[in-house]
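Bug: token stream looks shifted between consecutive jobs. Job 1:
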Amino acid sequence: MTLKNTADRWGAVSQSLHWLVVLLIATIAVIGLTMTDMSNGPSKIKIYALHKSLGLTLLTLVVLRLLWRIYAGAPKPVEGTPHWQERIASLTHWALYVLMFALPISGWVFNSSSGYPLQYFGLFNLPKIAPRGEDLAQLSHQVHEYGFWLLLALVVAHAGAAFYHHLFQHDDTLKRMLPGGRRNVRASGDVGAAPVPADLLPSASATSEHSHAD
């Protein structure tokens, strides 16, 4: 597998960034959906801080992923894919990019406008990117919340489309984002030919009788 993308499949770097982003989104979603119901205390503060740090990590990975895609390009659409499906897939991909930028940034704006400090895994402080204000805090919170549900819907639709192509279209849409998921291509000659069942092969005794008869 090459590091860069090819015309037929995503390379190792794109695959790694893709699945890291998927893992981060899933982790952030689980934390985000459960942390608001926690009782106030040190544990809740730590979980909120973890949620913020993971969100900043997601923002960094999305920037790297977008820069790598610009540099390495993207595979061509799978052969036989209708044009309307290509358009929907392209729009979905770019919508996902927009939301993966919007959610961490809106969270950062909410944190800044609410007057909360922001640390990255307790290692260093990050600057405020918005002035303190109740209206801005409320707006950014709404963008963060509704954007999450929209992102979740698009992720489910994106995954569902990939599995549809894999299970019903039987093409390489999903496999080319998996390590080693290469298309099976038969070589010329006998390589890759189906084996002959054992019960259809002549037995040793039959071969011997045939040779004696000759």
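Job 2, same session, no restart:
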Amino acid sequence: MDVMLILQMIAAAMFAAVLYTIIGIAPGTDETAVLAPVTLVLVLTGMEPVVVLAFFISAIVAKKLTDSVPVAIAGIPGGVMAAPMVEHAMILKKHGVPDLSIRKMASGSVIGTLVAVPVSLLLANALIPFADVITSYANQLFFIGAIILALMCKNRWLALASIVPFAILIQGLRHLYWGVGVVPEGTNVFISFFLGITIGPVILTLFELLHKEKRESLERFGKKTIVLNKTKRKKEIPNPFKILTKKEVGTSAVASLVGTFTFIMSPVGMTILLGELVSSRIKDPVKKASRAISSMDALTNATYISGTLIPLIALGIPLSPVAIGPANALFNAPPVFTLDHNMHHILSTADFVWATIIGAAVALSMTYFVVVKYSQEICTFVFKWVPHEALLGLFFALVLLLAFMDAGWLNIGGVLLIGLVAGILHRWGVNYGVQFMVLYSAPWIVSIIAG
């Protein structure tokens, strides 16, 4: 591999590590909403695919390492995947050891990365011989995936009932665009629809603020006071194998391995299931919480890495909740990437290995050290100076820009419509995975219904 390309990969990975260390600590940031748009922009700018992949892997690792910090310090998840850890982290905080919580979660992330990277690469290459068979049934698999994920939702019947109407809405807008000549017939507007689903809850909330009665009924708050307990900074270089006990290392590794093999399942569901399973028999509250959060953090890293790499290397189609959400731009970002021409078809096995190792190594070496050593200072800075609303506003503006680039002014209205429906469905308990699977399978679903 060219030395200059390796240097670009390292630079991109370093940029991702810094950016997502800050974003990860910002409270309430959704992984899909903050990873997908930035990755998409990098792809559309024409950046080398292997450099984009190194960026994305570094971003995953950094985001997963840092989104546990506000959980431990303030009980506020830095992302959706960190939400299941709040209860256990608050137990450790109640017992006066929030610093232990941070070290345990960050160390669990390291274990998850170390397990997931080699296992994902091996499993992906093992699945390559079956790729043609799997991809030939892509539409049916997306539809089946939507049904499976719908059955895993809390409101499963609502999720199942929403599949066909949501598919009709998506395909109906595409036919409208073809009919009025906004885009050439047969051109599928995809990117902006995908991003509309991603920030659907934000669009819904903004529209609700325009409703007078709804706006006036909202509770008002002053400046929020967050108390941070001062902790002593450790002088030695952090070592995850010393921070975690042997049993915690073992359960974290096992959870990561299971999470890697179940890459097609919901990451949040697997995190809750395995996290509670490995700690259920422990009586001591501190030991139980420590075991749970270290295993959960390991699992979240593993599911994100495997959910990206395995479909990308083996199949070339996004057949996992992670691939169809945060990593979608690596598979489908017209005109640069399509399902018939993306990183799967462009990069060699060596490219995938180099990009993954560089991205993971850079993020681990930078972010892990910073999180364990300076988590409280970073958290204080982000809580004080980086408003959550500013980040959401930035991504919302980016979505509107890409919507205009996709199909002009009419598409801004279309994206707002999809965002409203997606936001309502998300609030009612229909998760992103179902909606993204429907987005992919919409042409096939409508064609089958229409006969």
